[in-house]
Every structure is written in structure tokens, then in C-alpha cells.
Specification:
Layout: H1 2-13, E1 19-24, H2 32-36, E2 40-44, E3 48-51, E4 55-58, E5 64-69
Antiparallel strand pairs: 1-5, 2-5, 3-4
Length: about 80
């Protein structure tokens, strides 16, 4: 899926994606799949979420953030 993602996005919206991101809840999931498929652990969130689209509230459950560059020149 990640190999097609940038090209599909380009076709639909007229510009490529450079990075895919995924938040993982570490309580029920360990993130092993993402680590095994070369996703990079970028850090941990502070455990906040939007509520009603306007307010930010703490849900007390920080998530791990994984990222994967979708193009070789993503860093440029």
C-alpha cells in the first residue's frame, strides 16, 4: 500500500505525499508490524484529541507515532 500511496494521491489531488504517518495505541498493540516493515518510531503523543472539532481534551492515552518516507527524495 505504501508503494502506491504517493502516486494515487498525486492522481487524485494533484500533488504527491512525502511521508505516511500512523498513530498506534500501545496498550493493546505493540507496533511490531510497523517496526518490522521499516516504519520509524518518531515519538509519543501527549495524549490529547480534538473534541467537537474545536476543543482539545486530554484522553490520557498517549499514542506512538510512526512515519515512513514515501519517496527517496522526501528529506529534500
Amino acid at each position: 500500500m505504501t508503494k502506491r500511496l504517493s502516486a494515487d494521491w498525486q492522481a487524485a489531488y494533484g500533488h504527491p505525499l512525502l511521508l505516511a504517518e500512523r498513530f498506534v495505541n500501545p496498550k493493546p498493540f505493540s507496533g511490531t508490524l510497523y517496526a518490522a516493515t521499516n516504519w520509524c518510531l518518531l515519538g509519543t503523543s501527549k495524549g490529547y484529541a480534538r473534541s467537537n472539532g474545536r476543543y482539545i481534551e486530554s484522553h490520557g492515552n498517549p499514542r506512538q507515532l510512526y512515519g515512513m518516507p514515501l519517496r527517496r527524495d522526501a528529506c529534500r
